[in-house]
Batch of 2 targets.
Target 1
Amino acid sequence: MKRSILLIEDNEQNRYLVTYLLTQSGYSVVSATSGPLGIQMVGTVNPDLILLDIQLPEMDGYAVARALRQDSHLRRIPIVAVTSYAMVGDREKAIAAGCDGYIEKPIDPQTFVSEIERFLPAIRKEGTP
Ligand code: MN
């Protein structure tokens, strides 16, 4: 079975690029364009990892992470924040909100997949012996 990733991102170009990179690497990607939609989808998608944009309309990524961490069924899914806020303290803010990791935009297509794989639970990837 393919491993699935839920991408919560409002920017269409970013959704396209991230979906492309992950799909090329064998992941199944489902995306949500807002925090409330993403929260609504987590239960049905049951992703192996959540990629969470921080700059979102109506509900920012920190609030989304906090909401997900309050749900005991969803608490164990790794969340990686993806943000263009290159400000001191943002990493700490993301971790404090419940994120497991943090990747800065613009993402590097060469290293993006391996960066997020560090946060996936360590099980064998499909196709490896
Ligand atoms: Mn955004």
Note: Helices lie at 12-24, 35-45, 61-69, 90-96, 112-117.
Target 2
Amino acid sequence: MSLIIGCPLGQVREHHAEIGSTNDRALAWAREGAPHGALVTADAQTAGRGRLGRVWASPPGGLYASVVLRPDARAGFGAIGLAVGLGLREGLARWLPQTSLKWPNDLLCGGRKLGGVLCEARWYAGAADIVAGFGINVEQRELPPGLTATSVAIELSDGTCPSRQEVLEAALQGLEGVLAGFFNGGFAAIRGRYQAHSAVLGQRVRVGEDTLEAVGFDDDGALRVRSGAGTRRVEAGDVWLVDDFN
Ligand code: BT5
């Protein structure tokens, strides 16, 4: 696989005070020919989306962004969401080095959700338009009730919260560093960095009805879990940290 290396993300940008979903806009822009790295951001979203039809609460104060990626590659991108999460974590680490990665796509701080990733792709003639969308709670001091969520401002209670712009630029830098490795060598090339910050590795996780130990990640990013009967792969869906239920 190769990447459009050296082409920084966010060279072409579009910002909205309010939008339905930055992912929808980036997908439409990609269809119209947006270049690799084209970035859509918004101060707030009225129809922010998570995975599987879930809602992403998107009030002012959060960072809502979607980047068009046009990797020159024919192989699978199944683990792109993991790579994006790792890139965001690396960007956030200067402020919140304790940020961890909960497979498949959550950024956690102190067991609470700080951010999430939603990658969507459109395939044509062996190439792909990928949109990597992410939401990070930045300046919010209160989050919608019912969510086990946190924000950069809540975590940095000493008032040193960076601006959304600073977080965005750091996130883009982190993404560039990780995606170059990922598009060239797949998940295996970034697995070591990913595992070092995994919130699930070595933990008991609930997968459907089962409680299992998360023991590793396969080359394609699938989670490997162990029970008495041996190990098996979890390729998609959600897992819950068992301690979340205590
Ligand atoms: C995600 O989905 O975590 C992916 C979120 C991606 C949002 C970005 S914002 C920019 C771009 N444009 C979009 O429309 N989307 C992307 P999922 O794993 O399905 O998690 C959704 C769940 O997270 C919800 O069901 C809530 O439980 C929780 N949640 C919703 N809003 C939250 C928030 N602001 N902070 C923390 N948790 C939240």
Note: The longest strand covers residues 112-124.
